[in-house]
Each structure stands twice: as C-alpha cells, then as structure tokens.
Amino acid sequence: MKRKGNDIERPRKVLQGVRDFVRFIASEMKPKGKIWTPFNVISGTIIAVGIVLIAIRFYMGLGAVTNLSQDYPWGIWIGFDVITGVAFAGGAYVLTFVVHIMKFEKYEPIVRVTVLNGFLAYVFYAGALLLDLGRPWNVVNPIIGNSFGLSSVLFLVAWHFLLYMICEFIEFSPAIAEWLNWEKTRRIVEKMTIGAVIFGITLSTLHQSGLGALFLLAPAKIHPLWYSYYIPVLFFVSSIFAGLSMVIIESTFTHRIFHHRIGNRLRASHDDILLGLAKGCIGALFAYLFLKVIELVHGGHWGLLATPMGYWYLVEIVGFVVLPIFLFGAAIKRRNVRLVQFTSFFTAIGVVLNRLNVSIIAFKWYAPVRYYPSWIEIWVTLAVISMELWVFRWVINRMPVFKEHPAAKEAMDDITPVGEVVRWKASAS
Amino acid sequence: MSVNRRDFLKIAGMAGSSLLAGAPGRSEAAVAGVEFYGLLIDTTKCIGCRSCEEACNEQNGLPEPEVPFDRESVFETKRDTSPGAYTVLNRFPNEKDPDNPVFVRRQCLHCCQPACASACLTKAMEKTKEGPVIYNKDRCMGCRYCMIACPQDIPKFEYGSAFPYIRKCIFCYDRLKAGERPACVDACPEDATIFGTRRELLEIARTRIYENPDKYVHHIYGEHEVGGSGTMYLSAVPFEQLGFRTDLGTTPYPEHTSGFLYGVPLVFVLWPSILIGLNYLAEDRNKEKNHEEEG
To answer: Could you give the number of structural domains in chain A?
Structure first.
C-alpha cells in the first residue's frame, strides 16, 4: 500500500516541481525596472533593425550587405567581432588563474562577473562568426563530421571555442544554481570549477595564440612590420592586457549602473582591485613591447618605419603600448583610479587597432582597392554588442553575480579561513 | 639557432602527438615517391585565342563570359579568375619583342603542398594523390580561410548567393580519373599548355631552356615557388612583368603553421601540470599565512 502511494505521489511531485520551475523562469523573464529608458530605446532600435539586416544577409548572401570582396574575404565581422572580441574576453582566463590557481582572494569578488562577461563574449562575438560563414549550417562539420582538417589552425580554434565555452559555463554555473536554488547541483558544479579553470586556461592560451597563428599562413599578404613568427605569442600576451583592461572598463560601468546589486565586500575593495589589475596590465604591456622590439630588430625592417605604414605602426606601438605603460605607472603611483580607468580605455583602443591592423589594415596593404566596412556591417556589429549587453544586464539583475550566496559564503568560510581574514580586512578598511 | 629550436619542437611535438588526438597531421603531399600530374604552360607559344577559357567554361558548366570569346577588347583590362571563370587569359607587353605581346593564363597552380588545403578545417580543399587540389563542396562551411591563405589568390567565393560555394580550377579531376586530360589542354591549338607528370614536365621545360637559352628566362615558375606546384610556367620575359608574384619564397605554406601546431600538444601537457603545481603552492602559502595570522 505504502509503495503504491509513493508511486502516485512521485510523478505528482515532479510535475509540481516542473510547474514551479516554469513559473519561476516566466516571472524572471519579465523586465525589471523602467522600460522606456534612452539606453533601451537606442539599443532596442539597433537590435530590431539589426535583425532585419541579418535576415537580408541570409536571404541575399554576403555580397548584398557587406563590402567583402575576392581580395578581402575577411572584414570587421571577423577582424573586430571575433578576433578582437575574443581578445577582450581574455580577462576571464587571466582572473580565474589569479583567483582559483594563485589564490589571490582580493580579486575574488570580480571573478563571477568577469567569467560571465567572457562567456557572453564567446557566445555573441564568436557566435557572430555564424553570420560571416557562407554555409553556417556546416559549422558542425569539423566537430561531428568525418572531415577533420587536422592540419588547420582554424580547426584547433573552432574546437577550442566550443570547449572553452563549456568550461566558462561550468565556471559560472554555481551562480545559476544559486539563482535556481538548486543546492545539490551547486555543490557538484562548485567541485568541477578547478578542473574547468585549469582546462580553460590551457585552451585559452592555445586559441588566443591560435587566432594569431591563423595569419601565419599569409606571409606575402600582411605588411612585414606586422607579419612575424611571433604573431601567436603576441596575440596571447596582448590578450592578457586586453582582457584586464576590459575588466577595468566593465567594472567602471557596472559599478555605477548596478550599484544596488553589488555586495559590501566589492564596494570596499573596488579601488584596490582596479589598481592591482592595472599592475597586471603594465606587466603584460611591457612583455608585449619587449617582444615587439625584438621582432622589429630580428625582422630587420627598420627602413619600413619611414613609410606611411611605418608611421601607422609607430602610432600603434608608441601611442597605444608605450604611453599606456607610463599612464598606468603614474596612476598606480598616485593611486589614481580615474586615471587607471582612462588608461584602460586607451589600452583597449590599442588592442582594437592591433587586431584590425593584422586582419584588415595591414592585410594586402598593397591592394589597389581597399576594404572599408559597409554601414550594414557596422550596424550588425552594434546590434550584436547591444544584444550581449541586454543579456548581461538580465543576468546581473537576477543571478548572484556580485553578491555572494549566503550559503556559499558559509561554505567558503568553512573551507578556507583565509577568506574570513580578507573579508575582515576589507570591511575594516 | 632557429633550426635547433624547430627540430626540438618537432621531436617534442611528435612525442606529444602520440599521446593526444588533434595533433598536426603530416601533409599527404609531402609523402615522397608520389608522381603528381601537372601542366606546363609555355607563354611563348600562347596566341591568346581563349580556347582554354571556352573549354573550361563548357566543362564546368560556367556562364558565358562578359566579353565574348572572339572579342579582342577583353585584353584591355587585367582580369582575375572569378566564381564564373576558373581560368582567364591576360595580355602583357613584351619588352623583348613589342609586336608580340605575351599571353598568360591564370588559374589554380595545384601546389604540391597547398596552403588552402592546410588552412581548411573541414578538408573541403583536398590535395589528391594524383596531384589536383579539389573542392568537396558538401563539407565547406564558407569561412574563406583558404582565400586568406592562398598565395596566388585563386579560390573565389560566391558572394552573391545565399548558398555560396568556393570556386576554383580543380584540374578537371573527373576527366583525370577517367584517363582523360584536362579540357583546357585538349582545347589548346598551339600546345602552349601540355599535360604530364610533374617530373616529365620539368624535364621538358629544362630541355626547352637548354635548347633555346636566349629565348627563355632561365626560370621555371612553379618549380620551387612555395614548395613547387603542379602547374608550371615558361616565359621569355621576367615573370614579375607578367603579373606573377616572385616574392613568395620556396617554403611550402603548411610549414608556416606547423611550428605552432607542434607546440599545441606541448602546451596541453605542460600547462595543466604547471597550473596544478602552482595551485598547490598557492594553497600552501595561504595556509602558512593563516597560521601566522592566527598565531
């Protein structure tokens, strides 16, 4: 009798659970806060028109909406959206290294938001790749097909994008579990974090440099000042300061916009964290500059510096690598957080410049007809960015990204008393 | 110095690749003892009749050209291959003999170690054992990396289509398998384009140069360029005057990325172990710090 009762009760319980879950998700889907804000109106328009443009792109082909040509097969959808976007997503692997591997707990309050940012960057910016592929439905071919192009750098990059997205999802999933109140799941995914972090850093090293290695196959097409066997290493090192400066920029905004969502701990240590990240930026920038100089000396292209492309090269190196080193240095010395934030913008622009130089501007610099993006390409790029920001905001306003889950906090205190010390220090300051 | 480093990476990479899948595969084209078929194009014999273009269009079901085949005005501008034209003929002035301009055919050179095939992540571009570099359209995802990689800018993309493919000369691969020569070879009235194995063609080309040392420049384009190609050219005037790129070097293109690919298994083995080690040390450090603070 008893067993029978259980059998009837269990499906009912499950059904009730599913019903509650659906109701919860439905209620969370509703927008919070004002709808008709200037940001919403502008970004909403960009997205709405962007979707129409994307529809036209799939209906008419790439030629109808882009300025791509037989000479320039890759435009800003690859050069900016994918290649630059992924560099900016590098903050996630750097910070997980600092916090989960090196155990610098000072940076712990910003890990979640950085991983979220990284994950969304991969979903949207690497996802923008699908817009650029001629036959996007075949994107699964190198993953599940029987056609593995093992000698292709792009094969490696494609696989690593996929695997790294899974890693980042695992790294972020404790926040999702807390949001859904799935305590058991949270404990399981929490344990998977360190494995995901180690695998994720390895994957990031390889695909950040792999994006640079793509261009190793075009030695005769890229200007000698930008082509070098160091491209993979340069891409990797620059992804460190690209990622870190993006973390600083992002926190500058989120700190103002999502003030109500931010926990006391992060509020107290925010300036300290930014100054620390700036130090990391200097280190990476300096290593990058050093490699650039070695490459210039080895390549023996001094003479090319006195050409128009050479001046452009100097703008990139002196203006956006050397100058940020000095600015960050001054900011750290004076503990000037404002200057750190300003310099981060500057550094980020330098990264954009570098990626566009390698993939577009110095690519076929000799071509009689150069590529300039069409307004549609720019619009769609803005639409992709807007969509990412919408999803980012949706997650921030619902999941415990900045605040710690009370249970997690207790659990953390049990495992690592160090956290307690840091927290005590932070609250005292 | 750099050779040592490369050798080290190769050895280390091979050791790693036996442990891990996804390691770089050796280019099939590098296997010794395979006789690739190719074409020898003697630009001194070409009369610019465009029979090769016509035969090519017919063979591949390509559309009619913008300028009809019998119209000489077509040579007033320099043309490039396109999704609708796998081979095009261009006219260049002849400094040696101004009355006889030079005609040069432009199409896929079918490199011995093709950049496009090593760039392709789905093996849509494929170097066959017979020599032609063919295109398996069903595998292609349209990423256009082959176009970035090709030193001769041969693969062309159908930008105007919602279901686009890459288009280029595939050496009439079906005809070759049926024991026939490529359509353009059969169509050439002057034997300016001849067909054979790469070894035979090189012998013929050298013989022509030796027998007419004043007529030809002493260079066979495609013998060594980017590691050699199936289609090779002879010319009476320097190749750079005929629109050829002479700055490509002799290194096969796949070798430009092989160093990086050999490093991949290295990172896969070293990084996790280093990271685990660092993590262990960091935890130790934090524990000690705690003890100090508590004590």
So the answer is: 1
